[in-house]
Design brief:
The protein has helices spanning about 45-60, 115-120, 125-160, 165-180, 210-215, 230-245, 300-305, 310-340, 340-345, 350-365, and strands spanning about 5-10, 10-15, 20, 35-40, 65-70, 70-80, 85-90, 105-110, 195, 200, 205-210, 220-225, 250-255, 260-265, 270-275, 290-295. It is α/β, with parallel strands linked by helices. α1 (about 45-60) runs parallel beside α10. The two termini are about 15 Å apart.
Length: about 375
């Protein structure tokens, strides 16, 4: 039997609005046979627990989804086995998850049942101080991302003033026509749009999962251009258009500003339109036919030259703020790792492995 395939996403993000959760979109209750919510402290094995089960199911030929942590590049926040409707979630802060239908769908796995509580109490002051330092790093990172948003809005204001929106509308129409030509509208099915993140601002910088997400995609339109040239608006138009054809979509919110979209994938058409962040991101690994759409074609260059100095300053200030945020997220990760020296020695990992193996058997029984 061949191994299954892996698709990778982010369900939460470090954004200009702070931590932004799309956990509720990892799996819907109506589609789930079982959701395991894993509780426990840092370093107690939640991510390792999910990775082990994911690998075991891959070896059995099941496709899986890995939902990575935006604050720790090597940790999983969630695992989904779509074919059997099974999901495992890290249910600890900042993405607190509680059962919606306990017993019927949701089940809590509390790894804290297998730690030496007295040992943790003994280190209470150090643990509290470390958590406080982590929180301060994230507060500073989110302040920098908010500053970046203010700068970004100024940057957009110069570009928007220099856009010929007739040309942008023409380009938008051409993209829509190129995707939906010869597609018949049907009204038998109700279209759904699953929203997640394809990228994240992480301790390792700006990370994209587009090649993994679009591995079955045959055609990808990549929108290029300055902020304010209409990229997110085009994607929003396409999501609406797909819905009018009763086509389900995977819609991806911007990892910088989650109120906007950075991409849409239409599985039935094996077609996607994306606006990667940063915009010069190279899509190595994609096997699809890539079509570059240059939105600068809609800019009035002679008018934009009046703002060359301001745009250049905005670009520099914006990336300074983004990089400052990344540095503080990296610091938060480094400090957070120190918590493991308190939690790991307090854990009975043999007991956790027993829970893991019982959970895997429960999942296999659902196949």
């Amino acid at each position: 039997m061949d191994n299954g395939t892996v698709r990778s996403f982010f369900a939460g993000g470090n954004t200009c609005l702070g931590f932004y959760s799309l956990y509720h979109n990892i799996i819907q209750q109506k589609d789930a046979s079982r959701i395991f919510v894993i509780k426990g402290g840092p370093g107690v094995g939640k991510s390792t627990f999910m990775k082990y089960i994911g690998n075991a199911m891959l070896e059995k030929g099941y496709d899986i989804e890995q939902h990575w942590c935006s604050s720790d590049n090597n940790s999983l926040d969630g695992l989904v086995i779509p074919k059997i409707g099974v999901c495992l979630l890290d249910g600890t802060a900042p993405h607190v998850v509680d059962p919606i239908t306990p017993g019927a769908v949701d089940e809590i796995i509390h790894l804290g049942d297998h730690w030496n509580e007295a040992q943790l109490v003994e280190n209470k002051t150090s643990i509290l101080n470390t958590f406080k330092k982590v929180s301060r790093c994230f507060q500073t990172a989110y302040t920098s991302l908010k500053e970046a948003k203010v700068i970004h809005d100024e940057w957009v204001s110069y570009i928007t003033e220099c856009i010929d929106f007739r040309k942008v509308n023409e380009i938008t129409h051409q993209v829509i026509e190129g995707i939906f030509t010869n597609i018949q509208r049907q009204y038998e099915d109700y279209p759904t749009s699953r929203e997640l993140f394809a990228s994240a601002t992480t301790p390792m910088g700006l990370v994209n999962q587009w090649p993994s997400i679009l591995q079955n995609c045959k055609k990808v339109f990549v929108l290029r251009g300055e902020p304010g040239t209409g990229k997110s608006t085009i994607i929003q138009r396409l999501i609406t258009e797909a819905k009018s054809y009763s086509l389900c979509t995977e819609a991806f919110r911007s990892s910088f500003d989650p109120l906007k979209f950075s991409g849409v994938y239409i599985p039935k058409l094996q077609t996607a339109v994306i606006n990667p962040f940063p915009n010069d991101y190279i899509l190595d690994g994609l096997r699809a036919d890539i079509v570059e759409i240059d939105l600068t074609a809609g800019m009035i260059i002679s008018r934009l030259s009046d703002y060359d100095k301001e745009v250049s300053e905005c670009r520099e200030r914006f990336w300074n703020s983004i990089n400052r945020a990344i540095n503080y997220i990296a610091s938060a990760k480094k400090i957070h790792d120190e918590l493991e020296k308190y939690y790991v020695p307090a854990m009975d990992f043999s007991k956790i492995n027993e829970v893991r193996d019982r959970t895997l058997q429960k999942i296999i029984a659902l196949t």
